[in-house]
Write a structure and sequence with these properties.
The protein is an alpha/beta fold. Helices cover 35% and strands 17% of the residues. It is globular and about 65 Å long. The chain binds pyridoxal-5'-phosphate (PLP). Pyridoxal-5'-phosphate binds next to helix 3. Pyridoxal-5'-phosphate (PLP) binds next to helix 3. Its main location: cytoplasm. Its EC number is 2.6.1.52. Its cofactor is pyridoxal 5'-phosphate. Catalyzes the reversible conversion of 3-phosphohydroxypyruvate to phosphoserine and of 3-hydroxy-2-oxo-4-phosphonooxybutanoate to phosphohydroxythreonine.
């Protein structure tokens, strides 16, 4: 039976990416060797890394603008540490926008390095919206925000203009919508939401912001060292990087971010229209801040849950239960999820009306 995978991460990738990456494990580039058994310094793998790094900048429109793309290990969670380590001056301070569990995780780590000013927070409303009306201290070393709040289903539609460097955790919506990416100085994203398997984290950094913290940074945590080594300071996560390259190539062939954004908007409109129309359901996040990637919604009557759960499972849907901190349901509609899968979910929601 065809599966419709709504998992929040790790999550669905394009079918052709699964097939090509599986093939590379058996026989990489017709070399008779597996991708997993060759040197990361071999010509073939160096080409993979170079292409992946270049394609990231191409797709984001950041070529020739002083940015470097890196594929690191340690997950987005390690970037919670690396960002302050590299950017917060000794005795300096950083500004953070607290929009969810991941933002709070980043704040926790930043506090280890210096003064951490939370300029806005929606914590008291269980993070159901993006705070507005905050101001960013001009003497902060940087401002950190989370573009998409995977757990709560909110997404920043605009970003503040500020003279301080802007750092953005884009783990769950990178490559999903057109933005002026040059408004950010440091972008990071765990691969496992919109790009590849778990095991690598994309970092896109403007080189001019580095080298100013006055800190002595351990080599593995130093963006400058990774840039100098062309993202090969140590053995990189070869399989996640290769698979990410395949996804980036898939996206480019499709027409890039502008093309996928159209599809993502169509999927989100289809589902949110049904959430709003169907009297059995309600959305969990403020309408203006709804995420096109992760739609969170609830049943108005919890008593309908057993029958709804049975129905969507029978339709081949997986990964729909909401995060425990929100409850209800979360439909993660990452780039590779087809519109047809959203239609299947909407049809089940409609059918529920006739059953209760
Ligand atoms: C999943 C996620 C993370 C954590 O990523 P790891 O790679 O598991 O460390 C951080 N931020 C956001 C927004 C996420 O969605």
């Amino acid at each position: 039976m065809k599966k419709h995978n709504y998992s929040a991460g790790p999550c669905i990738l394009p079918q052709e990416v699964f097939e090509k990456s599986a093939q590379a494990i058996l026989n990489f580039n017709d070399s008779g060797l597996s991708l997993l058994e060759i040197s990361h310094r071999s010509k073939d793998f160096v080409a993979v890394m170079d292409q992946a790094r270049a394609l990231v900048l191409e797709l984001l429109g950041l070529e020739g603008k002083g940015y470097q793309a890196l594929f690191l290990a340690g997950g987005a969670s390690l970037e919670f540490v690396m960002a302050p380590y590299n950017l917060m001056k000794v005795g300096g301070k950083a500004a953070y926008l607290d929009t969810g569990t991941w933002a709070a995780g980043a704040i926790k780590e930043a506090k280890l390095f210096g003064e951490t000013v939370v300029v806005g927070s929606s914590k008291n409303d269980n993070y159901n919206h993006i705070p507005t009306g905050y101001s960013i201290p001009t003497d902060a070393d940087y401002f950190h925000c989370t573009s998409n709040n995977t757990i709560f289903g909110t997404q920043m539609k605009t970003f503040p203009t500020t003279e301080v460097p802007v750092v953005c955790d884009m783990s769950s919506d990178i490559f999903s919508r057109v933005l002026d990416f040059s408004q950010f100085d440091l972008i990071y994203a765990g691969a496992q939401k919109n790009m590849g398997p778990a095991g690598t984290t994309l970092v896109v950094v403007k080189e001019s912001i580095l080298g100013k913290s006055g800190r002595e940074i351990p080599s593995m945590l130093d963006y400058s060292k990774h840039i100098k080594a062309e993202s090969m300071y140590n053995t990189p996560p070869v399989f996640p990087v290769y698979t990410s390259l395949l996804t980036l190539q898939w996206l480019k062939n499709l027409g890039g971010i502008a093309a996928i954004e159209k599809q993502n908007n169509a999927k989100a409109n289809l589902l949110y229209s049904e959430i709003d129309r169907n009297p059995l359901f309600k959305g969990a996040a403020a309408v203006a801040d709804r995420s096109a990637m992760n739609a969170t919604f609830l049943l108005n009557d919890e008593a309908h849950a057993p029958i709804f759960d049975e129905m969507w499972k029978a339709a081949g849907i997986s990964g729909l239960p909401g995060h425990r901190s929100v409850g209800g349901y979360r439909a993660s509609m990452y780039n590779a999820l087809p519109l047809e899968s959203v239609q299947v979910l909407v049809d089940v929601m409609k059918a529920l009306e006739t059953k209760v």
